[in-house]
Amino acid sequence: GREVSATSEETVRERSGGGWVTTSRLEDLIVRVQNHRDITVECQALSPILPRPISNTTTLTIISPPGTPELEGDFSRDLEAGMTMTVSCKTRGGHPRPTVRVLKGVTSLPGDAKQAGDVTWVETRFTVTPADNGLLLTCEVTNPATSTPRATSRELTVMFGPSSVSGSVSPTLVEEGETVTLSCEAASSLPPANISWHARGTPLLGATQETKLGAFGGTIT
Questions:
Q1: What residue stretches are annotated with the Ig-like domain (predicted)?
Q2: DSSP line for the chain
Q3: Rounded CA gap, 53 and 171, in Å?
C-alpha cells in the first residue's frame, strides 16, 4: 500500500520487432512488519499512452521461528520398567506452524500435533523398558525459519529388576562332609540385586558378592 524506496536496478532494452522492455530489480529490501504473516507486493508499470498503471502482485510469506521448546511430564517420580509415561512437547509462536515431535533416543514417538492460539503441542505415551535407561527424551520443534531444530532434553533413569537368576554347583557330585562351591548370578538390574542363600529354610552365611557392568547401564551381581 505504500511506495518502497530501496536499492534498485533498472534496465531498458530494445525488443526485436519493435518496442522496449523495461526491467526493474529491487534489492536490499528489509521487510518490517508487525503481526503480519503475509504481505502483498505490487509492481506498477507506467506508460504515457496508458490512462492508468498496469500492475502485477505477489505475496511474501513472513516466516518466524518457534519459541523455546518445553518438555513436560511427571519427571519427579522414579521410573520403573513396565510403567506408562505420558509426556508432551510444546512451543509458542512460529510461522508457518512448527513441526513438533518427541524423540526417545533417535526414535520419534507417535502423537498428533494440536494447536490452540499460538501454542502448538504433541502428547505421547509409552511403556518404559530397561533399554530406556540412559536415553535422552527430547522435545524438538522446527519450521522453515529454523536452520537447525530447536530442542530440549532430559535423560531417563529407569529402575529395573533382574530378568533371570542362574545357579551352579561345583563339583556336582560330592560325599557327605566334602566342600562344594555354589554360585548364583542375577542378571543386570538397577539398583544392583541382593543375593541371599538358604538351605531348608536356614540362611547360609559367608558368601562373597561381586558385581560387574550389565546391560542397559545396570549391574550384574
A1: 66-157, 162-221
A2: -------EEEEEEEPTTS-EEEEEEE-SPPP--SS-SEEEEEEEE--TTSSS-EEEEEEEE--B-----EEEE-TTSPEETT-EEEEEEEEE--BSPPEEEEEETTEEPP--EEEETTEEEEEEEEE--GGGTTPEEEEEEE-TT-SS-EEEEEE--EEB--S-EEEEEESSS--TT---EEEEEEPPBBS-----EEETTEEE-------EE-GGG-EE-
A3: 105
The owner of cell 529490501 is 29
Cα(191)–Cα(160) distance, integer angstroms: 7
Reference 152, options 36, 220, 72, 54; nearest CA is 72
Cβ proximity of 97 and 115 under 8 Å: yes
Q: pLDDT tens digits, residue range 76-125?
A: 888 999 999 999 999 999 999 999 999 999 999 999 899 999 999 999 99
Q: Contact 166/182 with Cβ under 8 angstroms?
A: no
Whole-angstrom CA distances from 12 to 2, 9, 15, 80, 94 are 25, 10, 9, 75, 41
Please give the Cα distance from 38 to 96 (Å, whole number). Answer: 10
d(CA 84, CA 126): 6
Phi, psi of 104 (to 5 degrees): -110, 105
**Which residue reads 521410573 in cell numbers?**
79
CA angle 8, 32, 36 (to 5 degrees): 125
